[in-house]
Design a protein that fits this description.
Elements (H helix, E strand, L loop, with lengths): L2 E5 L10 E4 L4 H13 L14 H11 L3 E5 L4 H12 L5 E5 L10 H9 L3 E4 L8 E4 L6 E6 L4 H10 L7 E6 L5 H13 L5 E6 L2 E6 L17 H14 L3 E4 L12 H6 L3 E6 L2 E6 L9 E4 L7 H11 L3 E4 L11 H11 L5 E3 L3 E4 L12 E2 L5 H7 L8 E4 L12 H5 L4 E5 L1
Parallel strand pairs: 2-11, 3-4, 7-8, 14-15, 18-19
Antiparallel strand pairs: 1-19, 1-20, 4-6, 5-6, 8-10, 9-10, 11-13, 12-13, 15-17, 16-17
Helix pairs in contact: 1-2, 1-3, 1-6, 2-3, 3-5, 4-5, 5-6, 7-9, 9-11
Length: 424
């Protein structure tokens, strides 16, 4: 089902800002499910964690026991976390599989690391890719070196099982660490379950984390999952494109989530943020934002890339954005996908090397009244590009249901901001 999106200009400055009830963080939810399960906690109710496809895949896997065939669909986080979880769970006998795209996403770095500390994992089809046959046991642990430039989810997966290995784990990350805030989120959540760690940084190209063998402890006070900052980013985009203000409920600026850096990124795109008792108020700044070249390095928060890039195009702000090296192994090759779809909308964006996208402010001709935007089965393609309907006549977003991966109510919420959404 496609979504036909158009925009009816709102009368800015009248009435209270629209309130948006954001989904809960799926990053926190998925870590919470793994940690709670390893700690032996009672199964968590679905109302406690994010309501989205990715978290549902994790819940279904954990509910299904430790023997059999598990298909987690397109849930990349679940694939990485569950690979380590089942490898370290004595008695498990699992075939872990996913969607067609998941079978194209490499996982050999994680599998090799797990095998090094005693895991028994075999590839069922193509070497280096899911599906995986996993026979669980208590892993020995020890020392692992890992390429820090591929995916922080590999690191988080290893860290979460490290306390239940025989020797604990000393993990050394080599090279530039991508998505570091997600690793820090994992460590902070592990601390809430009674596990400490030791960090060392001998130089800029090496980062070591040591965790001793110990037992997890279920928190006495139930862990509360924050609102999702990745989901909030689309409202920053909408505010920048339309000039509206919004109240983003149950969101905290001082957050475990690295994507809260959207506050700083959008302060340079003309959007102010104010922490209130029950959320964040975002609104256009009273001054005019700069029209100079916008520069940002998103190596710590690559999930914000599509939102920031689409916003810059929509407000006519030339940009040079780096730190995008992990975008090629996400739900789709997000660099190529963004280039293709933005050029379809008339923005002459370009890819530089493997980690940079730029736009000099030049435009291409658009031949159709209602461009059809391909989503590549990627939720963030749909959510980042749909608000550009406010700058064009209207857009048709292919496969609109893909937003259920992280933000099932996205289209309903979008209609509160003056967008008309018809499903065709």
């Amino acid at each position: 089902m496609d979504a036909l999106v158009s925009y009816v200009a709102q009368e800015v400055g009248r009435g209270a800002p629209a309130e948006v009830m954001l989904p809960q963080s799926k990053s926190i939810s998925n870590r919470l499910l793994i940690l709670n399960s390893i700690a032996g906690g009672k199964p968590l109710h679905r109302q406690v964690v994010a309501e989205c496809d990715d978290t549902e895949a994790m819940l279904n896997a954990l509910d299904s026991g430790n023997v059999g065939h598990i298909n987690i669909g397109a849930a990349g986080t679940a694939m990485r976390f569950l690979t380590a979880y089942y490898a370290a769970l004595p008695g498990s006998d699992i075939v872990l599989d996913g969607s067609e795209r998941m079978r194209q996403r490499p996982i050999s770095l994680l599998v090799d690391a797990l095998r090094l500390i005693g895991a028994e994992i075999e590839y069922q089809h193509e070497e280096g890719f899911p599906p995986l046959h996993i026979l669980g046991r208590r892993l020995e642990g020890g020392c692992i070196e890992l390429d820090a430039g591929v995916s922080s989810q590999y690191t988080s997966a290893l860290l979460m099982i490290s306390p239940v290995t025989t020797l604990g784990l000393e993990l050394t990350l080599k090279g530039k660490v991508v998505s570091l805030p997600y690793i820090q989120m994992t460590l902070e959540m592990m601390k809430s379950f009674g596990v400490d760690h030791l960090e060392t940084h001998p130089d800029e190209s090496e980062f070591s984390i040591k965790i001793e063998p110990c037992s997890y402890k279920v928190p006495v006070i139930p862990y509360k999952v924050e609102g999702d900052w990745s989901g909030a980013s689309y409202w920053y985009e909408i505010a920048a494109l339309t000039g509206q203000s919004f109240k983003l409920k149950h969101l905290q600026q001082y957050s475990l989530q690295g994507d809260s850096c959207i506050v700083e990124l959008f302060s340079r795109l003309g959007i102010e943020s104010e922490q209130e008792r029950d959320g964040i108020l975002i609104k256009p700044a009273v001054y005019s934002y700069s029209t100079d070249l916008y520069k940002a390095n998103l190596v710590k928060s690559p999930d914000l890339a599509q939102t920031v890039i689409a916003t810059c195009c929509g407000i006519g702000r030339p940009f040079y954005i780096t730190g995008l090296e992990t975008l090629r192994i996400k739900e789709t090759d997000r660099l190529s996908a963004m280039k293709s779809e933005l050029q379809r909308l008339g923005y002459n964006v370009k890819i530089v090397g493997d980690d940079t996208m730029e736009w000099d402010g030049t435009y291409l001709s658009v031949d159709v009244d209602t461009p059809l935007i391909a989503t590549y089965k990627d939720h963030r393609m749909a959510m980042a590009l749909a608000p550009l309907a406010s700058k064009l006549s209207r857009l048709r977003i292919e496969n609109s249901t893909v937003v259920s991966k992280s933000y099932p109510d996205y289209w309903e919420h979008l209609s509160m901001a003056g967008f008309k959404v018809d499903f065709v």
